[in-house]
Give the backbone structure.
Amino acid sequence: MGSQPELRILFSQEEIETAVKRLAAEIKGDYQDKYPLLLGILKGSFMFMADLIRQLDFPLEVEFVRLSSYGGKKESLGRVKVVQGLHTEVEDRNVLVIEDIVDTGLTTSFLLDYLGKKKPASLKLCALTDKPSRRQVPVNIDYLGFTVPNKFIVGYGIDWDEKFRHLPHICFVEIED
Ligand code: IMP
């Protein structure tokens, strides 16, 4: 990236806060007696996870995994592997995966498949954002923050080439041709 790309706000800090509170209320309703394991996907989910769990006033555990997709930088090509694995037993746990964005769905479906083989008591997905226009494999999102148009987004943990994760709002990038 040479010159700075133009960023336009898609979801403000306030809109994100409202969405996080709504998701937390839904999750609390379903999990407050289930001692869930919230499993964040690094790095993109770190800010969302931090805000979400502060709204959850019941017992839970937090874990992170880091995945890498190889073959493409901005897009996964379906070849995904776990590069920083689970240190918590998943079997018989109620696992809630926390994702930043579901785009083609390849990364998420790989992870859900990987976790499903470990025999959790239940396995659900909470995604901050969803870009359904880009989907290549079906993914069922149980708790969704925002549906986004077919644009590249950054901010609130989500990066472009490791930049812009610190932004408090979600922007889309105007890419010049
Ligand atoms: P998928 O496997 O295509 O669903 O992509 C998942 C991953 O691709 C996300 O976790 C992001 O790391 C990255 N990604 C997809 N779309 C965007 C975007 O608009 N902005 C930043 N990263 C993205």
Remarks:
- The helical segments are 13-31, 46-54, 106-116.
- DSSP finds three helices and nine strands in the chain.
- The radius of gyration is 16 Å.
